[in-house]
C-alpha cells in the first residue's frame, strides 16, 4: 500500500510540484499519511490530493518544515549569519511603479496563509510604502537594550521600513553609498523573529544601490516584477542580468497589471500589451509565477492599509496571488536544492 501511495504521488504533476513529491516527505501509517513539505505550498498539496480520488481514500495530515536554503555563493548561509531567517528573497523591478511593493505584501500574506512565518524589509528608500500598506503610518519603532530595532507586526507579518524612522523628504537627498548603507543597516540592525521567508522590497532600478544591496545581502534568491509594457520589460531584463551577475538565482517573474477585466461585462483589455512577461520569462529561462490583473480592489485595499486577502478574502485575485507565492516557494526549493545536490 505504501508503495502505491508513493507511486501515485511521484506520478503527480502540477504547476506547483513540477518534479512531484519526494518519497521521504511522506510518512504512511495505515490509512494515515503525514506529508511534510519543505516549502510553503500547503493549499497546493491539498488541491492536488483533492483532485486524485485514490489519494482521497487516506487521512492526510499536511505540515510545513521549511528548509533553510543556502544564500548565494560567497555569503554565509542563513543558518550561521542569520539563524532566525531561513530564506531571504529579494523582490526587484527595473522600472518604478510596476507594483513591486504591492506584489511583495501580497506574496507575504499568501505565504503566511500557507502557515509560513514571514517578514518584509521595505528597502525602498525613496518611496517606502510599507507603513501605508500596513495602515500604521506614524507608528514608532521600539528598540532593544542593545539598540536593535524591533520590527512592527501587522496581519501576522513582521516588517521594517525606513518609513518608520525618517521623514521621506530627508531620505530623498540620500545618494549612492549613503542610501545603500541605510537599507543595509535596516536589515542588519533589526532583531527579526524566527522567519521562514523574509521578502526584501528593493528600491526600483538596477543602479549602484540595487547592485550593492544584491551583493551585500545574504540573498537566497530573487524575483522580478514587471508589467507587459516594453519599457518595463527592458528594465526587468536589466534586473535579471543584475542578479545573474552577482550569482543570485532568479526564481520567478511576475507580470503585474497584465490586463484589466471590466467588472460589468467581463471584457479583458491588455492595457500595457500582452505576452511581454511570458516572452521575457521564456527568453531568460525564468519561471513565470503569474499574470496579475490590474484590479481596483487591490489598489483600494492597499490604500486602505490592508492586504487584499484581509479586506476582500473572496476576491478571485487572491487565488492567483496564492498560486504565485506557492510556486515561488517551490521554485526556490527545487532550483536551489537541485543546484547544490
Ligand atoms: N495589480 C494591480 N492592480 C491595481 N493596482 C495596483 C496593482 N499593482 C499595483 N497597484 C497600485 O499601483 C501603485 C504602484 O504600486 P507599487 O507602489 O506597489 O509600485 P512599486 O513598483 O513598488 O513602485 P516604486 O517605484 O515606488 O517602487 C500603487 O498605488 C498600488 O496599489
From TrEMBL:
GO annotation terms (biological process): iron-sulfur cluster assembly
Gene3D superfamilies per the UniProt record, alphabetical: P-loop containing nucleotide triphosphate hydrolases
Keywords: ATP-binding, Hydrolase, Iron, Iron-sulfur, Metal-binding, Nucleotide-binding
Keyword Iron tagged: yes
Residues reported in the UniProt entry to bind ATP: 94-101
Family: Belongs to the Mrp/NBP35 ATP-binding proteins family.
Descriptive protein name: Iron-sulfur cluster carrier protein
Annotated source species: Aliidiomarina shirensis
Amino acid at each position: 500500500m505504501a508503495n502505491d501511495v508513493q507511486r501515485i504521488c511521484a506520478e503527480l504533476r502540477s504547476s506547483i510540484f513540477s518534479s512531484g513529491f519526494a518519497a521521504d516527505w511522506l510518512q504512511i501509517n495505515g490509512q494515515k499519511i503525514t506529508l511534510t513539505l519543505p516549502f510553503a505550498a500547503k493549499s497546493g498539496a491539498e488541491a492536488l490530493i483533492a483532485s486524485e480520488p485514490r489519494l482521497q481514500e487516506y487521512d492526510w495530515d499536511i505540515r510545513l518544515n521549511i528548509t533553510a536554503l543556502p544564500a548565494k555563493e560567497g555569503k554565509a548561509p542563513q543558518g550561521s549569519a542569520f539563524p532566525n531567517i531561513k530564506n531571504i528573497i529579494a523582490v526587484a523591478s527595473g522600472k518604478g511603479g510596476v507594483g513591486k511593493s504591492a506584489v511583495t505584501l501580497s506574496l507575504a500574506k499568501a505565504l503566511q496563509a500557507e502557515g509560513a512565518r514571514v517578514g518584509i524589509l521595505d528597502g525602498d528608500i525613496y518611496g517606502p510604502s510599507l507603513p501605508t500598506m500596513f495602515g500604521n503610518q506614524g507608528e514608532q519603532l521600539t528598540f532593544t537594550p542593545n539598540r536593535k530595532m524591533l520590527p512592527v507586526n501587522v496581519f501576522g507579518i513582521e516588517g521594517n521600513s525606513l518609513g518608520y524612522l525618517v521623514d521621506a523628504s530627508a531620505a530623498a537627498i540620500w545618494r549612492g553609498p549613503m542610501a545603500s548603507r541605510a537599507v543595509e543597516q535596516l536589515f542588519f540592525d533589526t532583531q527579526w523573529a524566527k522567519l521562514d521567508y523574509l521578502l526584501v522590497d528593493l528600491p526600483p532600478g538596477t543602479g549602484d544601490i540595487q547592485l550593492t544591496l544584491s551583493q551585500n545581502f545574504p540573498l537566497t534568491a530573487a524575483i522580478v516584477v514587471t508589467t507587459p509594457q516594453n519599457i518595463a520589460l527592458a528594465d526587468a531584463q536589466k534586473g535579471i542580468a543584475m542578479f545573474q551577475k552577482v550569482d543570485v538565482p532568479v526564481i520567478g517573474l511576475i507580470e503585474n497589471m497584465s490586463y484589466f477585466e471590466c467588472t460589468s461585462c467581463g471584457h479583458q483589455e491588455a492595457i500595457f500589451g500582452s505576452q511581454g512577461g511570458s516572452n521575457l520569462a521564456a527568453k531568460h529561462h525564468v519561471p513565470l509565477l503569474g499574470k496579475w490583473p490590474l484590479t481596483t480592489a487591490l489598489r483600494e485595499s492597499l490604500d486602505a492599509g490592508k492586504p487584499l486577502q484581509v479586506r476582500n478574502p473572496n476576491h478571485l485575485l487572491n487565488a492567483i496571488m496564492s498560486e504565485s507565492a506557492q510556486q515561488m516557494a517551490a521554485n526556490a526549493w527545487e532550483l536551489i536544492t537541485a543546484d547544490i545536490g
